[in-house]
Amino acid sequence: MIRWLIGAIGLAALATSGVTSAVAAEPTEIAIGYLGRATVPQTLSPVEQPAPDDGLAGAHLAIEDNNTTGKFLNQHFTLMEHRLKDGEDVVAAVNDLGAKTGFILADLPADALLKAADALRGRDAILLNVGAIDDSLREQDCRANVVHVAPTRSMLADALAQYLIWKQWKRWLLVAGSHDNDKLFADALRRAATKFGAKIVEERTFEDTGGARRTDSGVTLIQRQIPVFTQKAPAYDVLVAADESEVFASYLPYRTWDPRPVAGSAGLKPTSWDPAQDQWGATQLQNRFVRLASRRMSALDMQAWTGVRMIGEAASRTNSGDAKTLLNFVKGPNFSIAAFKGTRLTLRDWNLQLRQPILLSDGRMIVSVSPQEGFLHQVSELDTLGIDRPETKCKLQ
Asked: Which CATH number does 28-151+274-356 carry?
């Protein structure tokens, strides 16, 4: 009996020791970098100004979500932030972050993103593009170390075009701004019109003549200018605006010469996310974000959230914190991510663009979600949005 008690006590001690050792084991640390711009672009509407932490707040919420799961897998996630000041060297900044982590969220313009990607070439490191929507980054300028979370202009334009076609609003008056990004969005809208069977009855250019837009463009002046600018157009169903530079599009609704809806950069807007999104469990995400940031969740916030969650998903599925292992899983065929959009999102292997539905918002409600019913594809209906595999110019390198 005494020998049995001694043996039982010994086994219990060993078991307790094993449990204590497991609990005491240090968690796997997974750091994620955030490289963004310090200067926040301004909008025409004074009530729609981006928050100083636009994007970054979404990343912080996703870190919390990753750590909720990470507690069970003995993983711990941290976020390292670097906001680029005007004129600061992006290569030096990305090299500094790249020495500490293999995962960097990037909210950068296209040229800076390419410099950052080339600076990281040859390392087990990846940039998750959460800000730049340029199609060129997924096409002729694509890089094997850049995963694109943000949608492209062509995806946004196709999403809008599908809905307009579904509504039988096939005759478009296209008004584009005079800046380069405006012209790129106009190109995407022209492509979408051709792709889905719309007709652009006329194109007009709104020249940016400079000046302080709010002080020099009072209500009375705008009320006189916009109707004159849009009069004498051929018969059209909808005015489609391309104004990424925030010069004129917000002045168009209710001021056009003919009583027509406005879409594109004002009115009905295509976007990856909107504060009004409440379907597919999105309300709980929106509420958690409000508690964290004391404001509503923007598209950039959601794109940053998704980028961080992609790393968290890879870490939980592989039970690893190794950068190369996680990178291979994200790029592999078994990867997908849930993002409150009604379907799991996957990666296009030919250009590393995240497939995703696009919301169509009027600024207060979600009007619709594309791809629209009836637009079919042999692989995924999500591939009806943007440039498809047979059209791509991307050669990952």
From this structure: 3.40.50.2300
